[in-house]
TrEMBL record:
Belongs to the RecO family. Pfam families: RecO_C, RecO_N. Residues 1-77 form the DNA replication/recombination mediator RecO N-terminal domain. Involved in DNA repair and RecF pathway recombination. Keywords: DNA damage, DNA recombination, DNA repair. InterPro entries: ARFGAP/RecO, DNA_rep/recomb_RecO_N, NA-bd_OB-fold, RecO, RecO_C. This is DNA repair protein RecO. Transmembrane segments: none annotated. The gene is recO. The lineage of its organism: Bacteria, Bacillati, Bacillota, Bacilli, Bacillales.
Length: 271
């Protein structure tokens, strides 16, 4: 049985196939789809624009046995601003890789996956939120979709709410969650094994997990907070979701090569 269908989609992976063609992984409103864009690898091909990473538009797909074909595409967004900036391009490549490896195939994707991913790319273009914070927000949503996100407001051991408990917080890399000062003190090895983190990180993790990325309009976090978020979520995804990969390493290498930016903000986060 053959079907021709139309879908809104964003290109999250492009693999050249021979000299002319490209195999696309498309993130649609209901999940991932793989399709061949014939002539998509040629700079002057009819589908060349539709075969660019982060391209967004309406795709007409022909599905028979096996892999489908892209028959037509009307591209709404090429996202040139993302491709023309090395840092934005690195973040976009990483986020596309993350989406292509964690969002299920159609029709089983979480309802918000497509919308949140589009919002991340929109945010990268608009510069309204720091790129690393956008990445952390999407990573947290991926953790929630994959079932590897604890309640960041509570100690993963005793269940105490951090808002009502004093003392330091640490992230336990073995258990994949935050632990309170009392639980750290109870086990001597935790003092060296668990990572110290900023006190406000529990509230930030919780907010970014549930905030609509499209509504994030001001995020001012200290460098220490942002470093802790990056380290925690890289570990959470790698060790508890099995998602690592070269794209994150390339991104980290590019970010590490940049001059340090001034750190003028200290912890305000608004949606």
């Amino acid at each position: 049985m053959t079907v021709i269908w139309t879908t809104e989609a964003v290109v999250v992976r492009v693999v050249r196939y021979g000299e002319r063609d490209a195999i696309l992984t498309l993130l649609t409103e209901t999940g991932l789809v793989t399709a061949m864009a014939r002539g998509g690898a040629r700079s002057t091909g009819r589908l060349s624009a539709a075969a660019r990473l982060c391209a967004q538009g309406t795709y007409v797909l022909y599905q028979g046995r096996g892999m489908g074909d892209v028959r037509q595409a009307e591209i709404a967004r090429l996202r040139r601003a993302v491709h023309e900036d090395v840092v934005k391009a690195a973040y976009a490549a990483y986020l596309c890789d993350l989406a292509s490896r964690t969002v299920p195939e159609r029709p089983d994707a979480p309802p918000a996956a497509y919308r949140q991913f589009v919002s991340v790319l929109d945010g990268l273009e608009a510069d309204r939120v720091p790129a690393d914070v956008l990445a952390r927000a999407f990573e947290l949503k991926v953790c929630a979709w994959l079932g590897v996100a604890p309640d960041w407001r509570r100690c993963i051991r005793c269940g105490a709410e951090f808002a009502q408990a004093g003392g330091e917080l640490r992230y336990d890399p073995r258990e994949g969650g935050l632990i309170c000062g009392e639980c750290v003190s109870a086990v001597a090895s935790d003092v060296t094994r668990a990572w110290p983190v900023p006190r406000k990180i529990a509230a930030v993790l919780h907010l970014l997990t549930y905030a609509d990325i499209a509504k994030l309009h001001r995020v001012d976090l200290s460098g220490g907070m942002r470093d802790s978020l990056s380290r925690i979520l890289a570990h959470q995804l790698r060790e508890f979701a099995g998602v690592g990969g070269r794209a994150r390493q390339v991104l980290d290498d590019i970010v590490a090569s940049l001059p340090d930016a001034p750190d003028d903000h200290r912890g305000d986060l608004h949606t």
